[in-house]
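F.,

This is the one I mentioned.
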């Protein structure tokens, strides 16, 4: 349980976790749309299914370089093993801002996981829980980051 509630000790572990979550998302989307198409959520003869697929694809391609740059910065300033609930009293504004954004994002991912579970999209449940966990790890890492020169 302690491993779930703390950031990884080694920076390469968070790099692999972040990469696994990010680079698995196209496969999760493929499975999701195949399931939804078979359920009849999208008419097979129309282009309605292509609109969200292309939206995801273009967004994912455009965000990938930013995620890579952000990951590099995160690893460069990685604090090591800290609690997911860490707080930096020396930098309270940064702590509040980062916490507000990433905790809200994690909550939205957990809500999506619940809704996906109700719809029996279990690969989305796993992906959303992993994404929420990564968001909390990133939050703790940014809040407690160490500036290296």
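My design for it:
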């Amino acid at each position: 349980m302690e491993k779930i509630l703390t950031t990884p000790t080694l920076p390469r572990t968070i790099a692999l976790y972040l990469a696994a979550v990010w680079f698995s998302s196209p496969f999760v989307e493929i499975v999701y749309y195949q399931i939804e198409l078979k359920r009849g959520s999208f008419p097979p003869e129309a282009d309605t299914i292509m609109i969200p697929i292309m939206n995801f694809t273009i967004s994912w391609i455009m965000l990938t370089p930013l995620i890579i740059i952000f990951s590099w910065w995160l690893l460069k300033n990685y604090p090591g093993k800290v609690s997911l609930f860490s707080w930096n009293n020396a930098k309270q504004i940064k702590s509040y801002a980062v916490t507000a954004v990433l905790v809200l994002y994690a909550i939205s991912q957990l809500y999506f996981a619940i809704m996906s579970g109700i719809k029996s999209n279990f690969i989305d449940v796993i992906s959303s829980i992993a994404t929420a966990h990564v968001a909390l790890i990133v939050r703790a890492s940014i809040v407690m980051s160490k500036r290296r020169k």
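The mean pLDDT is 91.

Talk soon.
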